[in-house]
């Protein structure tokens, strides 16, 4: 699939065109061209180290989403992307290179066009990695917090002074 077509799909999901979305499109393009497929369930898992626009492209193009549990966010502020395919038991990592794509002299549109015309190998350091995906998403019982009454995943409840409470109530109670 052409980067232009993938970008159109990502823009429909994300809402606008930007360099971050172009980065995500390039990541997704590489993933699809190297034996990984769209994930209707949890077959493909993405672990991302940022929460920028690029991640929306992955959700739109690859089907890796927070809701299905096959998109994991680690808040490191890096344009690094890990993928695990549960069908083939393969893993890859893409890490953005510094260089011409960080050029402050390029306009926003010039960066987008440069990215979309580039080969992923020119933009990212790409590594095969050991197959070690996170576990499947867990469906858990939700129970009311004893303080605010809001339903909370059982595994996220905190106990304080004998009361089971959600994390925000726990933080307020503990002061």
Task: Please provide a written account of the structure.
The protein has a five-stranded mixed β-sheet. The relative contact order is 0.14. The longest helix has 15 residues, at 19-33. The radius of gyration is 19 Å and the shape is elongated. It has helices spanning 3-14, 19-33, 54-62, 108-117, 120-123, 167-174, and strands spanning 44-48, 71-73, 80-85, 90-96, 124-128, 142-144, 151-153, 158-160, 163-165. It has 175 residues and is an alpha+beta fold.
> How many angstroms separate the termini?
53 Å
Helix tally equals 6
- The global form is elongated
Q: Structural class given helices, strands, pairing?
A: alpha+beta
Q: What is the spatial order of strands in the main beta sheet?
A: 2-1-3-4-5
CATH architecture annotation of the largest domain: 2-Layer Sandwich
Task: Describe what is shown at a glance.
The chain is of the alpha+beta class and 175 residues long. It has helices at residues 3-14, 19-33, 54-62, 108-117, 120-123, 167-174; strands at 44-48, 71-73, 80-85, 90-96, 124-128, 142-144, 151-153, 158-160, 163-165.
Set down the secondary structure blueprint.
Blueprint: H1 3-14, H2 19-33, E1 44-48, H3 54-62, E2 71-73, E3 80-85, E4 90-96, H4 108-117, H5 120-123, E5 124-128, E6 142-144, E7 151-153, E8 158-160, E9 163-165, H6 167-174
Parallel strand pairs: 1-2
Antiparallel strand pairs: 1-3, 3-4, 4-5, 6-7, 8-9
């Amino acid at each position: 699939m052409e980067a232009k077509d993938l970008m159109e799909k990502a823009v429909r999901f994300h809402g606008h065109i930007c360099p971050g979305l172009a980065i995500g499109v390039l990541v997704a393009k590489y993933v699809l061209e190297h034996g990984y497929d769209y994930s209707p369930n949890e077959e493909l898992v993405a672990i991302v180290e940022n929460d920028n626009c690029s991640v929306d492209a992955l959700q739109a193009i690859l089907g890796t989403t927070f809701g299905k549990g096959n998109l994991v966010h680690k808040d490191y502020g890096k344009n690094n992307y890990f993928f695990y395919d549960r069908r083939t038991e393969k893993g890859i990592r893409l890490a953005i290179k510094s260089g011409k794509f960080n050029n402050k002299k390029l306009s926003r549109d010039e960066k987008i066009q440069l990215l979309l015309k580039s080969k992923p190998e020119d933009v990212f350091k790409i590594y095969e990695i050991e197959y070690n995906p996170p576990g499947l998403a867990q469906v858990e019982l939700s129970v009311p917090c004893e303080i605010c009454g809001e339903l909370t995943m059982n595994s996220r409840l905190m106990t304080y002074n004998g009361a089971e409470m959600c994390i925000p109530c726990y933080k307020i109670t503990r002061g």
